[in-house]
Amino acid sequence: MSAMRVDAKVVMLGKESVGKTSLVERYVHHRFLVGPYQNTIGAAFVAKPIQVADRVITLGIWDTAGSERYEAMSRIYYRGARAAVVCYDLTDSSSFQRARFWVKELQNCEEHCKIYVCGTKSDLIEGERALRQVDFHDAQDFAEGDEPRPTSRLWESVISVASFPSGTKLVERAHTSKLCMLGF
Ligand SMILES: Nc1nc2c(ncn2[C@@H]2O[C@H](COP(=O)(O)OP(=O)(O)OP(=O)(O)O)[C@@H](O)[C@H]2O)c(=O)[nH]1
Fold it and tell me: Transmembrane stretches, by residue range (predicted)?
């Protein structure tokens, strides 16, 4: 059996339970899994063919485990990635700190990797704004930041899909987020 050809490697990074697997499930299988949370062990791989202009390319998506216990392993998965989706949970400020960690690391180690910062679980704050622990403007400032190489995009809400002057897009809901916005 011949090995599958992957045209672009994409890696999902972020603290445990932020919703990385849910995003991938939504994108690849158009579903949101309900039921007890099962943490990813090591990493999971899924291939997703997408149409870009007149050709089909295959994304190879590595969904890494968020637990710090697997941190060293996650480094293996982001090596050579064309894009990284760094997720944080809008209701968990510590997850945003963790996202900052991954963004910094990618900026230092993976020069050619496009970085997308994605706030998840917006449905939780829709009914109760007080649950929000990560300020929108803080996330936006960070994504557009003063780093030598700023992140490519910040997503907070797929519904508003607001466009910012820098071209930043916002997607906030794991249920509806579309990784196809990666722009390949
Ligand atoms: N309310 C809500 N819950 C979500 C959302 N996305 C994920 N969850 C829940 O959050 C929990 C963790 O989701 P996962 O997708 O497994 O998180 P993960 O980042 O892959 O976690 P690790 O595998 O530990 O790294 C699960 O119980 C999900 O159902 C969302 O958008 N809204």
Answer: none
Would you say the pTM of this structure is higher than 0.95?
A: no
Which atom of ligand 1 has the smallest separation from the CA of 175?
31
Between the CA of residue 164 and those of 96, 106, 128, 156, 176, what are the distances in Å?
21, 23, 26, 12, 20
126 C-beta closer than 6 A to ligand 1: no
The mean per-residue pLDDT over the stretch 20-31 comes to 80
Residue 170 lies in a domain: no
The CATH number that applies at residue 104 is 3.40.50.300
* Cα 118 to Cα 95: distance, rounded to the nearest angstrom: 11
The ipTM of this complex is: 0.99
Q: Is the CB of 22 under 6 A from ligand 1?
A: yes
Rounded to a whole number of angstroms, the CA Rg of the chain reads 15
Tally of domains in the chain: 1
pLDDT tens digits along 141-160:
887 765 545 455 565 433 22
Look at residue 181 and tell me if it is in a domain. Answer: no
Tell me the C-alpha to C-alpha distance, in Å, between residue 169 and each of 10, 34, 48, 141: 18, 27, 22, 13
| Distance from residue 3's CA to the centre of ligand 1 (Å) | 31
Give the model's pLDDT for residue 177: 35
Q: What is the mean pLDDT of the chain?
A: 76
Range of the domain at 54: 8-161
Q: Per the domain annotation, does 69 fall within a domain?
A: yes
